[in-house]
Each structure stands twice: as structure tokens, then as C-alpha cells.
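Hi Y.,

Following your request, here is the sequence exactly as I used it, all 433 residues.
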Amino acid sequence: MTAMRELTQGQRLKLSDLLDADAPLRLDLRLEAPFALDYACFGVDAAGKLSNDAYMVFFNQLASPCGGVRLDSSGGGAAFDLDLRRLPAGIERLVFTATVDGEATMTALRTGAATLQQGGSARGAFRFSGSDFGAEKALLVAEIYRKDGSWRYSSLGQGFNGGLAALLKHFGGQLAEEAAPAAPPPAPSVNLSKGVRLEKQLEKQAPKLVSLAKVAGVTLEKKGLAEHRAKVCLVLDVSGSMVNLFRRGVVQQVADRLLALACWFDDDRSVDTFLFDSRAIDAGPINLDNFSGRIQEMVKRHGLGGGTDYAPVIDMVRRFYGYGGPRSAAAKPTDVPVYVLFVTDGGCSDKRQSEKTVRDAAYEPIFWQFVGVGGERFDFLEKLDDLSGRYIDNADFGDISDPSRLSDQEMYERLMKEYPGWVGQARTKGLLR
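Below is the corresponding structure, written out as C-alpha cells. Let me know if you'd prefer a different format.
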């Protein structure tokens, strides 16, 4: 029998490390408090939204249509019986929540625990108390989510302002009694006119990017980010092992696709670019006027070679956007986050400092999309993706190896896999307005 593990706030791990993810399991939520609590499970898509209100399982809807999620509140607290095999492909995450029914706040919570069980045995437990929270009226307790073909588990332990109605709105749903009357057919979306303007600009300045920008726009529309604004940053490994990837144009392909994405996110149509080996270099922007051959020009100017250190360039990027340094409190909220694409072909020689820097950066409105190219093993990048003990999960890893073998749609899907969810969490945690 597998021993029960104590889990910590923010810890992420494969569900299979605790139990058999292909067999039925139970998540038991028990919060001891001097007030009534409502429990819910939100089955959301890749954008973190309820594409179907029937996948909100709570006191008024005790099971999902597929039978993959069922609520049993007969024994006090809430027990969610799960059969993940039944969930449709569009359900990417199950987010488990608790909300105050009344005027109290979670600071008065005595104790709480989320316990994963299978076959009548506890396999993993995350424990917390009111001292971990403030005046929030809701908690995002835990989540189970898909990643790289397997199910993962995260002990969230995040406070959330507002009650059940606010949570439902956050996930894109609406309480039945608040439903609005049928509206007239909508006018053409802002996104449509934005796309037309962008296409006309690209046809004049960078016709090579027109088709890329169209695919990027479709992906962002699917992810609920068509009107999203962000600064875009590219961080490139220029250590000696990257020489062939630059010569073959692999890095230029990645840069072109990112610039097309930046055309949607950034009004300047520009990508701030940094290079690193054992050095950290601010290489200036890539934009519509200079993108053709810009990568080769940067490499020629600064050279290829040397070792590989992540932390100095991560800190340089943080300082460039006005952040940086050890953190014990979140940065002031902003309307415009930073999306960083960090491209490398392998590990680094400063792993301990890199882990610390990524943890420190979790208090800032910056998302780090680590990308592995070249077909090597990327164990350390996977570790950065799943780091425990962070204020918020601020990083993702994608193995694209040879981008020439990926369609533009596949590439953008991988680049946007976790960012939409991070945007929602960053708002919840006060990093974004």
C-alpha cells in the first residue's frame, strides 16, 4: 500500500505519483469553521472558463453530464468522486473551491484539508488554516489538470475575493437567477476590426507574417485572449551548443512566430529580445521593420559560445520591466503583463540560483514560457515548470524540438497552453487588474 504524503501549498505533481489516475478516486474537502460553507468543482477548458455550465458540480447540481464528477456531501464537508476517464477532451482542469455562506471571511477558518483517496485509503493530504488567509470569502483549494498527456494535481490554497457568484463569474458562468434576458444579435466584434487593421499593416510592412498572424489570432480567440494586451519578450540561448540551430534557421522560425503573436498582444508590434550564455545581453527589440535577418544580426554582433546560466538573464528581464530582486509581497497590480518566451537547448550550470529566481519572480506579473529546442532532454526545464512553493504558477515548459515539424496552429497551441490560466490566477492573486 502506498504511504500517505503530506502536500504543501503550491505543490504540483503527477497524480500517478500518489495513486492510479486511470481508476476512480475521491477528493475529500473538510473545512472546520464557525460558519456554513458551500463546495464546488468547476470543470474548465484551456482558457480557464466553463464552456458548459453543466460542468459546475455543487449543491444544486450534484454530477457532471459525463458522470466523471459527483458530489457527496452526506458525511459532512464535501467528497468529490472522480472518474477522470469519463471527462470529455475539452475539460482541461477540475478546480475545487469552498465559499462562505454568509458574512464571515476565511480568516476565521479553524482547519482545512484536501485529501486524495483511493480504495478507501488516503494517498495525499494538503492542510491549511485561517491564518493562511485574510478577508477572502472563497478559496481555490486544489486542482486536477491535464499536462503532457497525463493528469497532475496541485495544492492551490489561494484566497479569492467574493463568494460563489463571484467565483462563477470568474470562470465565465452565471447564476441562474441572475441570467439576463435574451440579447439582440451582437454587433461585429472589436476583434474583427482589429484583425483587419493588423492584416493591412502586415501586408505593407511584413507580408511574410500575414498568414502567421491569422493563425495566431484564431488561437487567441479560442483561448479567450483576442482582446488581451501584454508586453512580449524573447530570451534566446546563444551558448556554443546552439550554433547549428541558429545556422539552420530554427531560432529565426521561433522568433517569426512570436512576432506574429506580439502583433496581437502588443500595440508596438515589438518583441524585446535578450541573449544569454554565461552572459546576459539586452539585444534590443525585434519589430516589423527589422525582423528579417534580425536574429543573424544579433548573433553576429554578440557571438555564440560560452556556458549556460539562466539566472542572470531572468533577473535582467525582471529589472527591464521594473521588477526584480527577492520578493515577500506581490508587485502592484498592472493592466499589462509580460509574456516571456525563453528558448534553450538544454540545462544550465546555475540550477539552484535559477530555481530561486523563478520563485522570486512569481510575485510579479510576468509569465515564463520555457521552450526546449534541438531534441535534447529537458529535465530541468520540466522542473522549473513544476516548482513547488511559488506564490503563483508563473511558468510552463513546452518541448518543440524542431519547430519546422509543427504546424503554425500546433505551435501557437503549445505557446498558449498555460498562459490563459495564469492570467486568471494572476487576477485572483492581485497581480493583474
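The chain has two domains: 5-178, 208-428.

Thanks again,
Q.
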